[in-house]
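Q: Is it fine to ask for two folds in a single conversation?
A: Yes, each is treated on its own. Send the first.
Q: Here.
A: Result:
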Amino acid sequence: MLKLLPILLPVLYGLLMYRLSVWRTHRELDAKSTRLADPKLKALTDRMAASLEIADIPVHIYEIEPVNGLAAPDGRIFITRGFYNEYQQGRVSAEEMSSVIAHELGHVALGHARKRMIDFSGQNAMRTVLAVLLSRLIPGVGILIAQALTRLVSAGMSRVDEYEADAYATALLIKSGIGAEAQKTLFGKLDALTKNRAGVVPAWLMSHPKTAERIAAIEKNEAQWVK
């Protein structure tokens, strides 16, 4: 048991830090969000809800300016005020906004929040073990290598989650009769909307897949599922 302690402690620490992060996130969202009331978007989310055989898909506005959508650990779906402003000003269509909601719903339905808790704890343990081993072999830089390797693993897992949420959204949008075209056109706008700087980051370290690769994956799924 004592031999496992150097591994168990980082895992427990990771779980504690994750729970603390979740608590802070909930408190922030509760303080800075309200229920979205937009008839056009509600009509589209109602179509998705009907496809899922549920009564409603609640969506909330998170009062921050960066353009983003997110799924909270408790399953709530949020659109930022900055994103909603882009929609109100006509730069993003209602169908494109519905694709964001479908994507975030995918994160909820596929249990990605719970998966991230497990991943975060495992990565914390991995970083600690690698740091100890590599520091013995390469004093001074071993810990930096351990951090880089852990980041590499984390980014790869995050990209898998994004592809899965994209696929869920595509299936739901097709089933709801909204179609996946808006999902693809939105990706074509996102770099400009978010003022993306991902181009300077190596692809294998990006937490989200490249836009062109996401669109290609959507088109592949669409071709199969529409038939």
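Q: Second one now.
A: Result:
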Amino acid sequence: MTALNTKQYDSQSSYLPTEALGTPKLGLKKLTEALMLSTLMGALSLTAHAADKKAASTNVEKAVPSAKAPISTRESTNGIIAIVNDTPILKSELASAVATAQARIQASGQPAPSPQRLQNDVLNGLILRELQLDMVKRAGIRPDENAVNQSLGRLAQSQGLKSLTELQQALDAKQPGRYAAVRAQVIEEESLKALQQSQVARRVRITDHDVDAFLASPEAQKLQSTEYRTIHIRVPFSDDYNRITDSEKKAAMQIAQQAQELLKSSDDAEMVLSQLSAGTAKNYIAPVQGGDMGFHPAAGLPIDIAKQITPLEIGQVTEPQITPEGIDIVKLVDKHTNDNMIIPQWKVRHILVKKDERNSDALAEQKINDLYEQLRRDADFASLAATYSDDPGSAGRGGDLDWVAEGQMVPEFEEMMKRTPEGDYSTPFKSQFGWHILKVEGVRQKDVSDTVKRNLAREALYQRLAPQAQEDWLQELRANAYVEVFN
């Protein structure tokens, strides 16, 4: 069952938003570490140091017979600035990372630190990154394929492309094999994200008593189930901020300011996008993105955007906000508060036949059709699920998934679930997990207000505790590693 779920309403759930490990403003050190660990747009230039680093690794193996053997400054003339366990960090890597950090700090409007402090903090970020990559390799962490494709999809969209196929064609046209290299970099970033979440989650313990205490505090008033309807417009950059020209930066800001003025007088997102495309934006290198995002809770938004919209009055528009990927403008169109959150739920069983090394897609389809014929001959659904279902989470319970709400299952499953009458079972259908048959045993309306508030309280407590837990973990990681920095 777990592979199908995308969200949990259970108050004991460990579900946490990906934003829980966002980039809270904890000072320059935290900012630069976050910059080193967030390189989706920078993936377009990831091959810059690959050959040099491979050669440097060979030199390190020759020069360092033992990880504990110190290396003199004289031996760093090959361009190595630091050794992390047995992995080199090149001077060229540091210079590139410092330039990226400088550009992003400038874009964010934060005061610039001294060059020496910035270099030290960026180098520390690179060292911590190498240590985490080493953990990823040793633990054999591989990210979910869907998460990788979603990240690549966002990258494609930022480049004005409609699919991963178009992204692959565009990248490989510039340099053969570039798409494979970019995909490898995205897999690396998603692996790091998975590692960070698992390490921090095991260090943050939130009890029911903690939740009760939080709900009794004045801060809990922020957990009212307010939903916001927003229009979000983005003027994307054609490349990472530090690699685009000053003229493109100026052109992007002019379009963002035009979008801001249009949004002040209109709630029609399509009209705003149309006017931007027909006006000055038509000559801009990357197409303007966005639209009406509908109603959504602030807790479901990235932290930076949530902070922008929650103080707004209805009808107000944010100032253009520069990010590494583009300039964002958000308008609060409407908001409402629900004291009671009533949602529909379906009591569901299912049978899954996976496509894997043993089962080709054709064989899996044949098996599910055979099971469907048995159901048509009045076979017991729970018995078939217990005997034949490949879902280990539910097969032992006769395929029982308990009560399922909207948004918990993959789209193909949810669509079939809603179309199947109560007391009946579906025809076979396919999802990314294999072939299914589901049975709807009941339908109800459920008030989940208390459960949602408790989950929001857990998320708020997690976001409060996670940064320190992450800091403690990173300090432990470095303290237990061999690190040699050359002056």
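Q: Anything structural to flag on that second result?
A: Two points. Residues 449-479 form the longest helix (31 residues). The radius of gyration is 26 Å.
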